[in-house]
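INFO  loader      accepted 1 record
INFO  loader      residues=265
INFO  predictor   begin
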Amino acid sequence: MKRRGCFLLSLVMLTGWPAHAGDNFQPLNFTVDGVARTALVYVPSAAKSRPTPLVFVFHGHGGNARQVAHNFDMNRQWPEAIAVYMQGLDTPGQLTDPQGNRPGWQAAPGDQGDRDLKFFDAVLARLKQDYKVDAKRIYATGHSNGGGFTYLLWLTRGEVFAAVAPSAAAAKYADKLSPKPALILGGQSDPLVKFAWQQRTMDAVRQVNGCAATGEPWGKLGTLYPSTGGTPLVTCIFPGGHQFNPAAPALIVKFFKEHPAGKAP
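INFO  predictor   done
INFO  writer      dumping tokens
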């Protein structure tokens, strides 16, 4: 009993919020190009015995793994899926923190020696080794700089993912992405990642995905742009600013569940 109490205490210290019985959080440690890297992982009990979805979630610039785990709450939204929250390193920001005093993610291929892409590769390889990861149900999402890294993974590791869901982010290279089911979330009054930038990215994704020019309702909060190729775009635009919308996690999980890889159009 004493050991279990210490384990729960360590989870509180790592995540910054109370652990609950059955959450199965665990820290994973890596060394990538000689640098220590960490990730916080939720693993459902059946992950060793049956094919299990895998969701990568990335924090924004200045954030951390415990914060994004709390905000996205994947273990409650989709308890049957493995959820991994990787921790970024101090990184110069494109819009804030030019000195790189706070943690974040590389912004482009080759940036920071591709240290975060290498970290992602290491985490994915470890999880595939340790659990029955369903290769047709691997997903990525993130907010702000984490949404930008989601776009970068789409660009450089697109074949890995069944679908992606960037939030409050934009990508200058969106026209070079490969077709992929995507849910894009944003705030119309975003003062940091200007909504005009986000809109240009959504327009480019709609073209890349071969989507219809006119959307139709998707639930109560989204707009679906169908694609005859099976790579639709859903946009969920909120009236707020750059903050992460608490309605987003449920929408992200709904979209991911609708789009395993290889789903017929």
